[in-house]
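G., the chain you wanted modeled:
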Amino acid sequence: MSEPTISTLVERVRDGDVRLHELEEHVDPDAAATVRRRVVAEQSGADVDAFGEYAFDAADADPNIDNMIGGVQVPVGVAGPVTVDGGSLSGSRYLPMATTEGALVASVNRGCSVIDAAGGATARVTKSGMTRAPVFRVADVAEAEALASWVRDNVPTLRTAAESTTSHGELREVTPYVVGNNVYLRFAFDTKDAMGMNMVTIATREACDVIEAETDASLVALSGNLCSDKKPAAVNAVEGRGRSVAADVEIPREVVEDRLHTTPEAVAEINTRKNHVGSAKAGSLGFNAHVANTVAAMFLATGQDEAQVVEGANAITTAELTPEGGLYVSVSLASLEVGTVGGGTKLPTQAAGLDVLGVRGGGDPPGSNGDALAEAIAVGALAGELSLLAALGSRHLASAHADLGR
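Predicted structure as tokens:
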């Protein structure tokens, strides 16, 4: 777009004739981003030229961002390769991780090398279901019980209504929760390879219309926070949300001693006293060392909704001695919300991250790529937990960060 046009639009925005969100009505998305950068630079006095260094067409990001001024570049590294024996992911994989935290990738990479030396990790998705929980108002507890009973008896009717809005989603269950004259209905959907929040919101709205038409209940809010999305919640730890996924590994004693410079006994004790007792005393919803680190880094590298790290870090790490004197370690993530289609997965660098894992797009059978991504993240989290627990056991945590210049 020509400089006069850019300058003219900057002046029109400054004068209030054109609003930032209206710029695409006058110029293409990349030019609109340039205009916004100029306006923001003038208003803030900041040098924002670095935002303009992005490697995708602004039009491609239109579904993902409003009032775009450019892009933020986060360094991407890989941990591994690590061998995964999963229900949907098998073989040796590099794990893409986007982060600005020094030593994180190195730590996960160390865990991956130990897992490989032990023959690889096993991973399985144990439950799947994206949830939305509307809240209804009723007159009293008698009507609340009547509504809960009606819902239990009419799940097939609600399923027909909900699934009429999507060619992929399947309603698995509806669970009523009563609090006085409030009735919360926690809908759980199989969203296949999509993370599925938009899908389940639209589908649930259709089912709510049926409930209002057939009962005396009134919908107050399509989300009543019992879903529970992007907030720490015990319901997700117990019932799951998105994908519940676990990974584990058995490591021979000699591998623990030679590669991690500690003992199975030390790792198991630290895990109990730190991750279990310490977390319980803190009132934590996650009983782990730093699962959020791997979840966040792999979310950013593969185009996931980064706010859902809140639920993704809802994990329990276990460690114990094997009968042979080795070390057994597991990580169970209760509510990992991931997808390989839709959302940020379409952007070029994020799509490349999924390609590194071999899980981009819809899977065959449907849902298998989403399961595979969940298994990869679980194994990465397992590697990170193993490495950090061992660093504490060998008392190398501080020195490792110092040596790496962090």
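The first strand starts at residue 76 and ends at 86.

Shout if anything looks off.
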